[in-house]
Every structure is written in C-alpha cells, then in structure tokens.
Design goal:
Number of helices: 22
CATH superfamily of the largest domain: Nitrogenase molybdenum iron protein domain
Number of strands: 13
Protein name: Nitrogenase molybdenum-iron protein, alpha and beta chain
CATH architecture of the largest domain: 3-Layer(aba) Sandwich
Helix content: 40-55%
Distance between the termini: 50 Å
CATH topology of the largest domain: Rossmann fold
CATH class of the largest domain: Alpha Beta
Number of domains: 2
Enzyme class: oxidoreductase
EC number: 1.18.6.1
Shape: globular
Keywords: Oxidoreductase
Strand order of the largest sheet: 1-11-10-9-12-13
GO molecular function: nitrogenase activity
Largest sheet: 6 strands, mixed
Length: about 500
C-alpha cells in the first residue's frame, strides 16, 4: 500500500496514484476483470493495473478540480475559501451556494450563504504576480469574517504564474494563530475533477486534524456531501454518534476526525483519500466493506462497522428487524416497476451502488455511464472493489461506459439501450435525455438510495419520474437535436476518439 505523504503540500493526482481513466467502453465484467484488484493484480504494488483508455481528441465540457475544492472547502461553515484566481473561476459559486443552502436546510442547520471570495486576478497580475492581492484578500477575510480557518485554492492562472501560496499560508498561520491551508487544485493538474476532493482532504489532514487526539469510542466519521441525515438513525441502532465531514461541518468537526473510532462513507470516490489518510497517519481505521447500497451491501457495511466498534449483537438485531420491515415494501415496488428499464449516469462508485439498488427492485439495467473510473482505491482492499461487488452479486452490465460528461457521446449511449428513465447526479446531461423523451431524476439528495430505507426511497422516486414520461415524450416531438445527420446515424459513441482524423474531414 502506498503511504499518503502529508509532508508535501500538494496531493498526487488520481491518474498517478490510482490509475484513473476518463474514457472506456465495454461491459462491466470486462472492466472489473481488467482493473479489479479483487480479482487479479493482487501482487502489484503502487498504482493499479494499467487500463487501455479511450482518449478523445477534444473535451466538450466538464468541471475541474478547483470546483470540487469549492464544494468541499467552501462548505465548511466557520471557515472561508479564497479562490486565488480570475473572477471567471468563481462563477460556479452561484450553483454551489444554492446547493449549500439546501443542504443546511435538509440537516436542520442555520441556513446561510457560502463564504468564498476571489482575488480577481487581472492581466497585470498574470505578468507581475498576484501575491500582494492574495495578502490583501487574507487581511480582508480575517477582518470581515473572523474565520476559524482559511483555505487558499489555486487556479490554472496561479499555477501558470507560479505564485508561492505555501509561504503566504505559513506566514499568516504564524501571525494570526489560525490554520491557513494551501490547496493545490489547478484545473490542469488532473484530467478528472475528483482529484479536487483529494486536494481539500489533503490540506485538512495536514493542517486542521488534531495531532494529539483523545479517542471517542462511539464517534464515527461519515464522509459525505450535502445529503439528508440518513446515517444518524442507522448508527444510533449501534449506539454510535455521527461526525459528518466535510460539507457543512465546522472546523472543530474536522479537527476531531482523529478522535473517532472509525471512518465510513457513502461513496468510495469521495471518501478514499481522507479515510486512508486518517488511518495511516492518525490510527483511525477505515471501514473496508462494500458500500451501503442494496440489502447485500448494507448488511456487509453494518457488520463491518459493528466489528470495528465491537457492536456485533445490536447490529444483528437491527439487520434482522430491517429485513422484515422492508421485505413487503420492496415486493410492492417490484410489482409496480416490473418491466421497467433504467440507466445510471453518475460518478463511478456511486453508480455501482445505484445499479445494485435498482436490481434489488427488479428493474432492468443494461447500461450505465460513469464519469471516471478508479481501478483501485487508496486502501487497496478488495472489499472496497465496488464494481466487482456489483458484478459478482447482481450480474453484468452489458453497456458500461466511462466518459467525463461528454454531451456528444450521450446520445448514442442512450440509443443503445433506450431506457424508460435515467438517474443522474450532474444534471447537465439531463436536457439531452429529455429531448429523447426520457425523464431523469437529478438526485439532489445524494443519500436517497443509502441503506435499507434507500431501496424504498429510490423505488418511490423512480415511480414519481415515470409519471412524467408523457411530458418528455411530447417534448421530444417538438425539439431538434444540435447534431448533424451523420453524427446521429453513428452507433459508436467513441468513433471520434477511435478515429480522431474524422474531425478534420468535411
């Protein structure tokens, strides 16, 4: 296992550390076989097995690592994030502010706006450097907000001009006796935005997590986004308390992560780096178990956590009680959903969990798009190979594709399977599905499918969106897709990636 190096201020990118890819086409079983440490490659050290990546000649649209820092560090309630960037990089604050406010409301926390500011770098700063602007911004932030911590996120621009934010952060940390945390998250640092999760988590591990912890044997770190509070009722059955991180946490919540009895998450993509950093550097064990989706995954997740925290008996009572409670509810949903075909377009590990839940509900799933694929996670433990767990427990997914939210590929991907509905997290692709007459559930609550209740919740959400199918079918009759006749006739979504010379032909 490769050790996470907290001496360095910058995180190693996912493609360097894990072998992450953003282009692939085939079936889920083949991808699991080629990349899965749960099946083979168990003797290798360091990076995962090399995958044959389908690399396109252009990127139509995506997001970047800096935006993931916005939605992580920018969501710490009593901290401030400074985007050391031109003002254009701050445009996503609008949508993240809405998500943040909704998340606070779902958790019954005081609703407030994000505290993210931009240094507003201009052309002259690109020539002469932006350090003085950064210092002025730090002074203003300290005076205006009196934060418990300050994060400084870099941008492509600051990466190009080479501003030394590490020295500035160290200077202000010493002067003001509060953590000023540099986060190296230039958009060009990594080909996939998930490295931005790791950048934020790396900075928190280095500069905020308490170095001399007093252990709390009933505290569990839950690495999450903005979803509703589904983990407190689950963990309460095991006499455990939840420490939600990173989004909507306080600086103290982050500091006490080293005091917890264990660390868990709802998605391996999000939790991999932070959980291993806590285990390797602070002795907080990470739960190595399948994700808590579907009956099999939730059972294994609860039993794994119970073993870590020595609560096996209450866990077994809870599992037995929940099986009996949800059995008739699932049976009723399966009758209503019989014959329906679904499609999932989300992040990788999250997609694996959603497919498992849909198959628990008897829904046919023969297609999925994931926005990237990690052949391995930081623990390198086979129990966390979520793709292999999906295939081995719920069967293959015939059309399993990796693409970083490329609109031009989505049309042919959907035409392959013609689903009745899609589940999607990043809803920029949903309008295209609507134009094809396919309703989409944007899954604004990331925790909707987690645990035993999650099976029932997702089933009810799918029934709701199916009621709107007629609207989308009518819409499809009155809109025109923005693609040429030649492109719409293609059956291979990756034809340009496989034959890049085509973009130069008339």
């Amino acid at each position: 296992m490769k050790r996470i190096n907290l001496a360095a201020t910058a995180v190693e990118s996912r493609e360097q550390r894990l072998g992450t890819i953003i282009g692939w086409d085939g079936n889920a079983d083949s991808l699991a076989e080629e990349s899965g440490y749960a099946r083979k490659c168990t003797g290798r050290k360091g990076k995962a097995c090399e995958l044959c990546e389908v690399r396109g000649p252009f990127t139509q649209g995506s997001v970047c690592s800096e935006q993931m820092v916005e939605c992580q560090a920018g969501n710490v309630r009593d901290a401030v994030l400074i985007q050391h960037s031109p003002i254009g990089c701050a445009v996503s604050q609008t949508i993240y502010n809405s998500i943040y406010r909704n998340g606070l409301a779902m958790r019954n926390l005081p609703v407030e706006n994000l505290k993210i500011v931009s240094t507003n770098l201009l052309e002259q700063d690109m020539v002469f450097g932006g350090i003085e602007k950064l210092k002025q911004t730090l002074d203003d932030v300290i005076e205006r907000y009196n934060p418990k911590a300050i994060f400084i996120g870099t941008s492509c621009s600051t990466g190009i001009i080479g501003d030394d934010i590490d020295s500035v952060a160290a200077e202000y940390t010493e002067q003001h006796r509060l953590p000023v945390v540099p986060l190296h998250c230039e958009g060009f640092r990594s080909k996939h935005w998930s490295t931005g999760f790791d950048s934020t988590q790396h900075g928190i591990l280095r500069d905020i997590v308490r170095k001399n912890p007093k252990k709390q044997e009933d505290l569990v770190n839950v690495i999450n986004l903005w979803g509703s509070d589904v983990f407190t009722p689950m963990l309460k059955e095991l006499n455990l308390r939840v420490n939600y991180v990173i989004d909507m946490a306080t600086v103290e919540d982050l500091a006490q992560m080293s005091e917890a009895a264990a660390t868990v998450g709802f998605c391996n993509t999000l939790s991999s780096y932070l959980a291993q950093g806590l285990e390797q550097n602070f002795g907080v064990p990470e739960l190595k178990a399948p994700q808590p989706y579907g009956i099999a995954g939730t059972d294994a997740w609860l039993r794994g956590l119970a073993k870590l925290t020595h609560r096996e008996e209450p866990a077994e009572r809870y599992i037995k009680k929940e099986h009996a409670r949800i059995k008739p509810l699932i049976a009723a949903l399966k009758l209503k959903l019989k014959g329906k075909k679904g499609y999932v377009a989300t992040g990788s590990a999250y997609s694996h969990g959603l497919i498992a839940v849909m198959r628990e509900l008897g829904i046919e799933v023969n297609g999925s798009l994931v926005f990237h694929h990690d052949p391995i996670y930081d623990s390198e433990d086979p129990a966390q190979d979520s793709l292999a767990f999906l295939v081995d427990n719920y069967g293959d997914v015939e059309n399993f594709s990796v693409s970083n939210r490329q609109q031009h590929q989505f049309y042919a991907l959907l035409k392959r399977v013609n689903p009745d509905f899609i589940l999607i997290r990043h809803n920029g692709l949903a309008p295209l599905a609507s134009r094809l007459g396919i309703p989409a559930a944007p899954l604004g609550d990331e925790h909707i499918a987690v645990g035993y209740d999650g099976i029932v919740n997702l089933g009810n959400a799918i029934l709701e969106i199916l009621q709107r199918r007629k609207f989308h079918e009518d819409l499809s009759k009155h809109v025109k897709l923005p693609y040429t006749k030649w492109w719409l006739e293609q059956t291979d979504p990756y034809i340009v990636a496989r034959n890049p010379q085509l973009i130069y032909q008339d």
